[in-house]
Design goal:
297 residues, alpha/beta, Rossmann fold, 2 domains, five-stranded parallel β-sheet, 13 helices, 5 strands, elongated
Length: 297
């Protein structure tokens, strides 16, 4: 693998922003809250996934709707990308008078514990605030989901933590996968499932399911030029008023090692480094500040 950095220990040349940013205003506590806020950082793999979501959303009413399984390690941007898609698509959503109150995109978390179609139906109804009787027969709950989704005009279903629903034995897994396929066929909507690599292994055991829900991987980041650019973009969002540390080989290497290349952990460490920088006499962020961030309280 070619080292993306020069021998002098600086970035080789594609990080876009090395200038000083304006300092975020406010008191120390206000600045810390600003650093820890939720914000979106665009990057190629997320953009590709968002485009795939858009294509699936646009292709409603197909006899065999397209599905997808988004896999990767925990805390690596899968769920945040789904939320970004929903925020963009539902920004102008307004409830239509006289129709059940369910948005065109529904995201639900697959319930933990013993997986069953019954628990899935209840989770879907609970997500949209629809009343249901937990003692109802499974078929009654299924019919209620179908009626609600159809009358509401639901176009896409996103199921997070799908590995929870596949935690049982082979027979339970087969029942759950067939349930998801049946929902997609009956409602003629796309279903996106988000989970760990364990879910991908389970899907690959069934050729039909694998074909119906092809995997889209969100792997951990390698130590690379692209990772340094991601770090630079994150520090840009901090508005520290000091130079970006993304051109510092040692800093980015340390950040990558501590985060394991995971998007969520990288973002958290960047925010903590920004907080620690407030009282630092240095005008530059150095890798030692990252070790300080990871010390137990």
């Amino acid at each position: 693998m070619i080292d993306p950095y020069t021998a002098a220990g600086t970035f080789a040349g594609t990080v876009k922003r090395m200038t000083r940013w304006r300092k975020s205003p406010g008191t120390i506590e206000e600045r810390k809250q600003f650093f820890k806020r939720d914000y979106w950082v665009d990057y190629p793999r997320a953009t590709e996934l968002l485009n795939r979501f858009d294509d699936m959303y646009a292709a409603e009413g197909q006899v065999r709707p397209e599905g997808m399984l988004v896999t990767g390690p925990p805390n690596n941007g899968k769920t945040s990308t789904a939320f970004k898609f929903m925020r963009d698509r539902l920004a102008g959503y307004q409830k239509v008078d006289g129709r059940p109150d369910a948005p065109p995109i529904i995201k639900a978390e697959t319930p933990p514990g013993a997986p069953s179609p019954r628990s899935l139906y209840m989770a879907l109804l609970q997500e949209v605030g629809a009343p249901y009787n937990p003692r109802s027969a499974e078929q009654v709950l299924y019919n209620q989901v179908i009626q609600l989704f159809t009358e509401s005009g639901v176009r896409m279903l996103i199921l997070d933590e799908i590995h929870n629903g596949l935690a049982g034995g082979p027979n339970q897994q087969r029942i759950m996968l067939n349930t998801l396929k049946s929902l997609s066929n009956t409602l003629q909507i796309s279903i996106v499932m988000i989970g760990t690599d364990d879910a991908r292994v389970m899907f690959e055991r069934d050729d039909q399911i694998k074909s119906r829900f092809p995997a889209f991987e969100m792997p951990a980041w390698e130590f690379s030029e692209e990772y340094a650019q991601l770090v630079d973009d994150m520090f840009g969002a901090m508005e520290l008023g000091i130079p970006s540390p993304a051109s510092d080989y040692d800093f980015v290497d340390e950040l990558h090692q501590l985060s394991g290349g995971l998007m969520g952990k990288t973002k958290k460490l960047v925010a903590e480094a920004a907080c620690a920088s407030i009282n630092s006499p240095s005008k530059n962020l150095e890798k030692s500040i990252l070790r300080h961030c990871t010390r137990p309280a």
